Each structure stands twice: as structure tokens, then as C-alpha cells.
Amino acid sequence: RSKELGKNQVQYYSHDFHSKMQKRIELENELKLAIDQDEFKLFYQPQVDAKTESLVGVEALIRWEHKQRGLLLPDDFIPLAEESHLIVDIGRWVINKACEQFSYWSKLPQAENVTFTIAVNLSAKQLKDNGLAKYLADCMAAYGLAGKYIELELTESSLEDSFEAIEMLHELSKTGVRLALDDFGMGYSSLSQLKKFPFEILKIDKYFVQDPGEIDSGLLAAICAFAHSLGYETVAEGIETQEQKEACKALNVDRLQGFLFAKPMPAEELKNNWLTH
Ligand code: C2E
Ligand code: MG
Ligand code: MG
Ligand code: MG
């Protein structure tokens, strides 16, 4: 009986594995076509100044409008894009689109007195794209954007401490854009190594903001003190409640981002709700 069960399990497992592989191959093939078929879309999430709560930045977050599967989130396809190296082209598409959108916004009459930045997420794999800095500089020139308006976010846990990665980060920052370390506190990176990287902004991971436990609120305070004493600008992500907002304000976090202020939204919605007189 147990033998029979085991056999069934094996069959079940291998069937499951097979269909998973098939789905993956399917998705990868569709991913290859998605740029040409114009299926990617950027959503934008506001960041507000902690003191005034006015708009000071937006983060671009990719979505895939899949014909059969509906709106897919980055976690559904970015890992696959990274493994298949499609992330290089997708990442370039994101940079171009974000620059185009930002330049459009900044020319609107109602945006005249608003100054804000646009943040773009980069996968660590894109640091192996040798033409990336040139591509970025070309986009900025094409849309007439100064580097000070653009931030590039890299997650702490994906960063390699390799010579090439650090070189590329320096190359990128030479275009005038600013670099942000995303999901800070969740990676392994040793604090002593941090200064090797040209980051100016630390985005404190939502884990530290959301967990109200005693230990973690101590961690949040320690991270903020650390960041400020080393001269980093700080952004807290994942703010969902008033209490979380107040806690971050009390710790002098510079910028706040989270569902309490707004969820990521299409460009049109951001224009209508956040770029008004
Ligand atoms: P991230 O850069 O840390 O972005 C923040 C994520 O947290 C977003 O998820 C956002 O929707 C979500 N978030 C924002 N506020 C709140 C909140 O108050 N509560 C909660 N629970 N979540 C909140 P999203 O859009 O699913 O993106 C997930 C990750 O995918 C991003 O994390 C980023 O690492 C990656 N990603 C997004 N767009 C791109 C892209 O264009 N290229 C690359 N390489 N990665 C991207
Ligand atoms: Mg980010
Ligand atoms: Mg993050
Ligand atoms: Mg994240």
C-alpha cells in the first residue's frame, strides 16, 4: 500500500514537474515577444517628503499586461527575465519609458511648481550590460533630462561585491543620476563595505517599518541613525498606517512611500491625482 502510494506520488511529482517546465518555457517565449507587442507597462508610486507630505518622487514599477493571464507583477516574471538575460532588453525598455514619461510630466503646466524625481529599479544582472551607462545617457539627452531627476535602485541582496559591478555603478553615477540601495537591511552586505558603492540613498525595507515588535522598532531606529550619520538620504517603504508614518517621521526619515499615501498606479492616474494645481 505504501509502495503504491509512493509510486503515485512519483508519477504525480513528475507530471507536475513536467507541466511546470512547460509553463516556464511558454512564459519565456512570451516574454521574448512582450516588448515588441507592447505588453509592458510602468506603474508609478508616489514618494512624499516626510515633513510636508508633498510629492517629491515617483518609483516606476513594471507590470506585464499578459493577454491570457492578465496583469502580472514583477515577481511573476522578473526572475525568469533575469535567468534568460531578457532582463537586459526589458531593463533598457524601462529606462527609456521612465525618461519619456517623466519628461512629459515635467512639461505639463500644472507640474511647473512641482519638483520630483523618478526612480527606476535595476536588476543586478543589468550591471553586466556594458552599454548601459551610454544607453542611459542617450535617453537622458533624447528627453532633455538632467541626472538629478533620476534615481536607480538596486536591491541589497542582489548586489555582487565584484569589481565589475562596482565599476558599472560608478559609470552610471557619472551620468549624474543618483543611486539608491533598495530593500536595505535585508541583504547580507557588511556595513563596512557599503562605502565602496556609490549609493547616496538608502531605501529601508518595509520589514523594519511594518513589524511593530520591540526588537524591530529598535532596528528601525538603529538603521536610521546609521544611515544619517553616514550621510545617506533615507526613504522608508511599505508605510501602510498612521503609526508607521509617525514612527518614521520621529526618526527623521527623509521620504515616505507606501499604500497609506498611494498604491502604484498608471501614468494617467498619477497625472490626474498628483500633478494638479
Ligand atoms: P521594490 O523596488 O522594493 O518596490 C516596492 C514594492 O513594494 C512594489 O511591489 C510595491 O508595489 C510594493 N509596495 C509599495 N508600498 C507598499 C505597502 O505599503 N505595502 C506593501 N505590502 N507593499 C508595498 P511590486 O511592484 O510588486 O514590485 C516588486 C519588486 O519587483 C520591486 O521591489 C523591485 O525589486 C522589482 N521591480 C519592479 N519593477 C522593476 C523593474 O522595472 N525592473 C526590475 N529589474 N525590477 C523591478
Ligand atoms: Mg525599488
Ligand atoms: Mg524595496
Ligand atoms: Mg522589494
Layout of secondary structure:
Layout (H helix, E strand, L loop, with lengths): L1 H33 L5 E10 L5 E12 L3 E3 L1 H10 L3 H20 L10 E6 L9 H12 L6 E6 L7 H11 L4 E7 L16 E4 L1 H5 L3 H16 L3 E4 L5 H9 L4 E2 L8 E2 H8 L3
Bound molecules: ligand C2E and magnesium ion (3 copies).
What does this 3D model show about the protein?
- The protein is α/β, with parallel strands linked by helices.
- The chain has helices at residues 2-34, 74-83, 87-106, 132-143, 163-173, 206-210, 214-229, 242-250, 267-274; strands spanning 40-49, 55-66, 70-72, 117-122, 150-155, 178-184, 201-204, 233-236, 255-256, 265-266.
- An eight-stranded mixed β-barrel has the order 1-2-4-5-6-7-8-9, surrounded by four helices.
- It is globular and about 55 Å long.
- It binds ligand C2E and magnesium ion (3 copies).
Task: Quote the average pLDDT.
Answer: 92
**Whole-number radius of gyration?**
21 Å
Order of helices and strands: HEEEHHEHEHEEHHEHEEH
Largest sheet descriptor = 8 strands, mixed, barrel
Strand order of the largest sheet: 1-2-4-5-6-7-8-9
Give the overall silhouette: globular
What is the overall number of helices?
Answer: 9
User: How many strand units?
Assistant: 10
Task: Report how far the terminal alpha carbons are from each other.
Answer: 73 Å
Q: Give unreliable regions as ranges.
A: none
What class, by secondary structure content? alpha/beta
Strand content: 15-25%
Q: Could you say which small molecules are bound to this protein? A: ligand C2E, magnesium ion
Level of helix content? 40-55%
